């Protein structure tokens, strides 16, 4: 499988949040603890999404990670208020205004970080541009597009990736661009398009609308870009940024250490070096505020990364995405746990 992108943006943004002197250290974490409720934004885009929305919404994954964060910080997954955000722009503005404490599933960018004063934690999902084809189309990969009709939304990042990949591979296809998503999907179902090119989340979301014909279409495994989706927090509270990042990392760490949801309590006193980051208090945070059981509660709420993906994005979900880049690095993916320390 091919992956082509850098994951450094969220790492750099988080490093800046943790290294820079916060304007009001602990303000968000203190507010969440005092209120006893986590206000968590989740991207749930309307049907008429715009060209600026480069990935599909993942509300189930977002809600689960909100619940895990509430469990880690407040002791119960039920102590969360989900606030729907129709786009990243709305979500960033809600963070900026203090309406929400965190936003789930944002695509990190330096422009957003500067414009809205937000920082990004580590990726919880890796999206990427892909191809969806009819199962009997005979198309197995990009090179098979030669002479075939490829449909896409005009003036989008996916369109630019498609053009660049075609030029790199010297593959000549018949482009058919659309301004409107509904018309494109009608052409796909009617088989006027041999292939549909977009982010994997967009393709999977579109396929759920095919109803009785869902099984007729497959999303090919190759990816032509990598787009990390991460939690986002407002700048100014390094402690809160650390908590959100730690919870985002916990499912991958648990899977790497062989711990699933049913055995999450083992994280409290494990001797496994891979699980040490989950077995104690968080650096610089008063144990009276976030105690050493934070990871056991988070993983006990949503499971490890494999369980989380299967339920919210994979075979157990409507999206039925292959795990691909979201598998552990030992399984051919790009998800890597923290090093033992």
UniProtKB/TrEMBL annotation:
Keywords, in A-Z order: Signal, Transport
TM stretches of this protein: none
Presence of the UniProt keyword Transport in the record: yes
Residues in the signal sequence: 1-25
Gene3D superfamilies recorded: Periplasmic binding protein-like II (3.40.190.10)
Lineage top rank: taxon: Bacteria
Annotated family: Belongs to the bacterial solute-binding protein 3 family.
Protein name: Transporter substrate-binding domain-containing protein
Protein's organism: Lichenibacterium minor
């Amino acid at each position: 499988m091919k992956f082509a992108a850098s994951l450094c943006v969220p790492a750099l943004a988080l490093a800046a949040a943790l290294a820079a002197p916060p304007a009001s250290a602990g303000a968000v974490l203190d507010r969440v603890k005092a209120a006893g409720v986590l206000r968590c934004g989740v991207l749930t885009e309307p049907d008429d999404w715009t060209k600026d929305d480069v990935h599909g919404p993942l509300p189930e994954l977002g809600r689960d990670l909100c619940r895990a964060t509430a469990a880690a910080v407040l002791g119960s997954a039920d102590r969360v208020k989900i606030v729907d955000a129709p786009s990243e722009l709305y979500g960033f503005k809600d963070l900026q205004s203090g309406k929400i404490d965190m936003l789930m599933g944002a695509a990190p960018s330096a422009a957003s970080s500067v414009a809205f004063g937000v920082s990004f934690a580590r990726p919880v999902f890796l999206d990427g541009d892909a191809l969806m084809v009819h199962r009997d189309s005979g198309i197995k990969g990009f090179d098979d597009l030669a002479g075939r009709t490829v449909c896409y939304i005009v003036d989008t990042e996916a369109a630019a990736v498609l053009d660049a990949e075609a030029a790199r591979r010297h593959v000549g296809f018949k482009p058919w661009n659309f301004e409107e998503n509904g018309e494109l999907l009608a052409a796909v179902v009617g088989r006027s398009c041999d292939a549909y090119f977009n982010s994997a989340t967009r393709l999977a979301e579109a396929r759920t609308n095919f109803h009785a014909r869902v099984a007729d279409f497959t999303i090919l495994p190759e990816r032509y870009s990598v787009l990390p989706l991460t939690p986002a927090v407002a700048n100014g509270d390094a402690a809160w940024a650390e908590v959100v990042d730690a919870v985002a990392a916990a499912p991958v760490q648990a899977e790497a250490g062989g711990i699933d949801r049913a055995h999450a309590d083992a994280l409290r006193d494990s001797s496994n070096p891979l699980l040490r980051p989950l077995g104690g208090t968080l650096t610089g945070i008063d144990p009276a505020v976030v105690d050493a059981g934070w990871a056991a509660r988070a993983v006990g709420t949503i499971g490890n990364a494999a369980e989380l993906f299967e339920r919210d994005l994979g075979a157990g979900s409507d999206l039925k995405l292959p795990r691909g880049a979201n598998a552990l690095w030992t399984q051919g993916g790009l998800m890597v746990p923290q090093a033992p320390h």
